[in-house]
Specification:
The chain is 33% helix and 22% strand. It has seven helices and ten strands.
């Protein structure tokens, strides 16, 4: 096969579909309120890591919650893993959320649950729930990669804020989501823990094609991702 034929064959292969595709999205919290989002267009491919940044009130978290099917789309189109969210039923929204891992700024752990209980509950999102032994194996490996291997059977009151945040990150990853949406995921972590978390997310992106979208103000993270998307006053002001 000639080089020309090889290039032609490569060109004929269609690109992979976007994992996240946002087109012409506007959003306001009340009919007469100033719009929170204005004409948002954004697309992320499988395996891409991107940061959403900008001043408080720019619309970053609102956009994240719309992409995660945690809010209802008002206008425009949002497609997540090929599925249109606009007009989607409650069951359809839940099905989409099952394929997403959410990391919130506040860890939102239940005080009565051990780390294993929390991760076991998250595993219910899997199409086929593994056995208890398989869950213990997967949970132990994940916690070890986050530097908290000794906390499998601990409850939140026995952990520091940073340790609880790493449990929350493990909860988001344990069911092998196709998309990870993270709101200030490293805000309560020290440098070493931040490095561990970013390394883990990068491996998921590179090896499994997981798409990662993070909201953060930490400029030290900017050179760790593929794209930095800056929002101002509800619009995308820069995408680099």
């Amino acid at each position: 096969m000639s080089a020309l034929e090889s290039r032609a064959r490569i060109a004929a292969v269609p690109p992979p579909p976007n994992a996240i595709e946002v087109r012409g999205v506007n959003f306001a919290f009340a009919r007469d309120a100033r719009p929170t989002l204005v004409d948002i267009d954004l697309a992320l491919v499988p395996g891409e890591m991107a940061i959403l940044t900008g001043p408080s009130g720019a619309g970053k978290t609102t956009l994240m919650t719309l992409i995660g099917a945690l809010r209802t789309t008002q206008s425009g189109s949002i497609r997540v893993l090929g599925r249109e969210l606009a007009g989607l039923s409650g069951k359809g929204q839940r099905d989409v959320r099952r394929r997403i891992g959410f990391i919130f700024q506040d860890h939102n752990l239940f005080d009565a649950l051990t780390t294993f209980d929390t991760l076991n509950l998250a595993m219910k999102l899997c199409a086929e729930v593994p056995t208890r032994a398989e869950i213990v194996k997967r949970a132990s490996a994940l916690l070890a990669s986050l530097g908290i291997a000794d906390y499998l059977h601990a409850k939140p009151n026995a952990m520091s804020t940073g340790q609880k945040q790493r449990v929350a990150i493990a909860r988001a990853l344990i069911h092998s989501p196709r998309i990870i949406l993270a709101d200030e995921p490293t805000a309560s972590l020290d440098r070493e823990a931040t490095h561990s978390v970013l390394s883990l997310l990068r491996r998921r992106a590179n090896e499994e094609g997981v798409t990662v979208l993070m909201v953060t103000h930490d400029t030290q993270l900017f050179d760790q991702v593929n794209r930095v998307i800056v929002m101002k006053e509800g619009r995308i002001a820069e995408d680099r």
